[in-house]
Amino acid sequence: MRNLISGWVWIPAVFLILVGATEYFIDSGNNFAFIEYPVLQLVLLVGLVFLIALDVILKAIQNVMFKSLSEDAKERYMRAREERLEKYDWKVLLRKMNSAKPISEERDIELDHNYDGIKELDNKLPPWWLYSFYASIVFAFGYMIYYHVLDGENQIMEFESEMMAAKIAVEEYKKNAPDLIDAESVTLLTEASDLEAGATVYQNNCMACHAADGGGGIGPNLTDEHWILGGGIKNVFHTVSEGGRAGKGMVAWKSILKPTEIQQVSSYILSLKGSAPANPKEAEGDVWTE
Ligand code: HEC
Fold this sequence. Notes:
Layout: H1 7-25, H2 33-36, H3 39-67, H4 71-87, H5 90-98, H6 127-149, H7 155-176, H8 192-205, H9 207-210, E1 226-227, H10 232-242, H11 259-271, E2 286-287
Antiparallel strand pairs: 1-2
The structure holds heme C (HEC).
């Protein structure tokens, strides 16, 4: 192998395979493995140095062995080497893959036909073409079996599943993005699922002070038309995320709840308007009109 492939070829090739292997075997998300895990860079560097050292050692061993040969054997070795090099000469390979008769020999393959002066040659099909043709037939079988027998993913299914994944990613992003909803941009939610989610947040965090039915306790009644800090989704969202007046006991929930949760619980509270709580606390604040 040393005779045919110089270090300039095989070292980068093996190195690339090494890098590819780290990429294949190590799960590194969207990044390259060696970027995600910088220690890999060191490992790969050591590997590269090792490959170079290997090349140097192999070359040295070969030199020593060559020197130990008799004159006769040396000559034979050189000749064999030359022949082998010739076999892999790209020009020879190219000629083989084309296998067309050179123009000077075309006379041998001319057919007898003569169509109004147009003659025909019986040239062989160029092997590069023939083999690509065979390869395409084999490929077609694989293709047909994958897509039409095994129901592999076609473009439309691929597109749909990617859009699906993107949609989930957007939802995920929205959940955690802090500034996506604020008191300015917030809207009242009316979907049953959102109100249900809001009710859950309410039961887990708010019930203790505002009563299970929103009738009030330590905190004010949330079901009447009176609001201390302003009604409507924007004011309520602001109160819940930033808290009530200092010292009154209503904390800023923005450090505990996500913006969507605050939006949901605020919408839930507003949906309680006009419901008749069991022990309503007397009204505080002013009647709120939009
Ligand atoms: C520790 C008790 C306590 C908890 C828990 C609590 N609140 Fe309050 N809440 C209060 C008090 C006290 C006020 C009155 C604040 C003020 O007067 O400034 C208040 C005021 C409010 C107001 C404004 C009412 C108005 O009339 O303007 C809203 C809306 C509100 N709370 C919603 C919530 C929500 C939603 C939760 C749960 C995420 C919650 N509260 C949890 C005690 C609490």
